[in-house]
Every structure is written in structure tokens, then in C-alpha cells.
Amino acid sequence: LLLPVLTGWHCSGFTAADSTGFYSFAQTYNQQRHPLPHDPSGYTSFNLSEVSFAGDYFDRSQLAQEKKDWPRALTLLEKAAYHFRLGGDWHSFILCNLQTARCYLEQSDNSRAVERLQEALDVIDERSFTYDILHADVHLEMGVALIRQGLKTQSIPHFLESVSIRQELNGNDDPLLANAYNKLGVSYYMTGKFEQALDVYHRALALTDRVEVEPLVIAEICNNIGIVLKINGDLVESLEYYHRSLELKESLLSADDPNLARTYNNLGNLYRIMGQSELAMVYYQKAESIFKTK
Q: How many CB atoms lie within 10 A of CB 235?
């Protein structure tokens, strides 16, 4: 839905719905390097020759991902996964499938991402692996992929499982729980469960008082709390959280980053509802100037 004309200026680039920024920060984990396990033999016996081939393909895929060359990364990861499977190194096979899924998500090929993640989950179930953090990440990414397919309700159990595994392994002060809580909150929000969304957002934010959490994740949590508070009619409090999110983003992102534009747009929506059309226009124009460059 397009916003109406305000004071003679058409906000053609914006939607009336606030943006959670879910897709932008869905793959924070993908920005990190992921070495292979030092001792995959803990999972099963394996063929060293095949695993050696696989390891070479896997290492080259990491460089391709760093360069955001997704087609090459996919080719290398598929080869690595094939040889890890032949070599019986199932833990590394699961890791390959996880990274392959993330590359597909980068290309908006959500159905193939789901296929690779489901294959990883099937291996975990079939081989009765003891849960580790990798399994939590597979569930987290499956939730992301399902939301992108529009399967919002189906994503919730995967986010809950990811949270549960992290809590069991690392306790309640795992910094990456904040990211998992945030994604779970987005699923609740998208399915109309606003109070549950607000609860997990606040749990995520409370975590930032105890441990160091990535600042951009904190910014998105604040943005998302602002969205739910606006729906609940708590406009003043919503405004506080939007500005907290904006302050973090402006200190961390370039001036033309689309994530910054989304928060500008959310603020424009809120000021419009509050009857402050001039302030709304200021933020709409800031957002429009970014959207025009993308």
C-alpha cells in the first residue's frame, strides 16, 4: 500500500507497514568464517582421501563467500558436500548444507535453501547426533527460509528449537540468543501474536545488559519493539525505541544504507499517525533519498 500524498509530496517509495529489517540481518552468522571441525572423527569414522578433497573445496568456498561470489561458492560447497558424504564426515556435510542454504538465500532461492536445510536436519535425525551449536544454526536458518517462503507459522518451531539448543548448551547468556529471540519475535509479529513478540524482544534486549551483543542486532530489536508498541497504541514509547534504533544505525551504517532508510520510513509512519506531518515528511525524504540510490 502506498502512503497518501502529504503536503503535496508523493511518498512513492514507501509502504504504510513498518519494516522489521528481518531479511537484512537474517544472516549475521554468514559474515563470519567457519572452519571445519578439528576432529570430525568424533562423529563417525571417515575416509581421509574423500575428506581431504572435500576440505579443499570447502576452504575455497569460504573465499568465494567473502567475495560474495555466490554461484562459485555454491559450486564449491556442492562438491565439498558430495565428498564429505562419500567420506562419511557427516558433521562437515551438515555444515556444508547450512552454508549452501545461506548462499541460496543470498540469491533469494528460498526453496533450494529449504531443501538443503531439510537434508541437514534429516541427517541429524537419522544419525542421532548429540546436539551442538551447528544444529541450532540449522534450525535458525530453516526458520528464516520458511518465512521467506511465506510459511510464517511453520518457522516458529524452528526458532524455538534453535533457542532451546543454545540455552541447553550455553545457558541463558549466550550472546547469539539475542539474534534468535529477535527472529522468533518477528515470526510472532508476522502471525499476529503481538504480545508474544514483545515478550521475546524484551528478553533479547535484557540479554544486552548482561553480555555483549552485536550492535546492529540491538538496533533491529529496538526497531521491532517500536513496531509492536505502535500497534498497541503506545506511540510515545514506540518513538523512543525507534530513535534508539536510529541512533545505533546512524553510528554504524553508511548514510546510504537501506537498513537506515527502513527506520527513517518507520519514524515517518509514526509521526504521521501522531499528526506531526512536517516531521513525518523529514524522515520520508531521508528514506527516499536512500531508496533512489539503490
A: 14
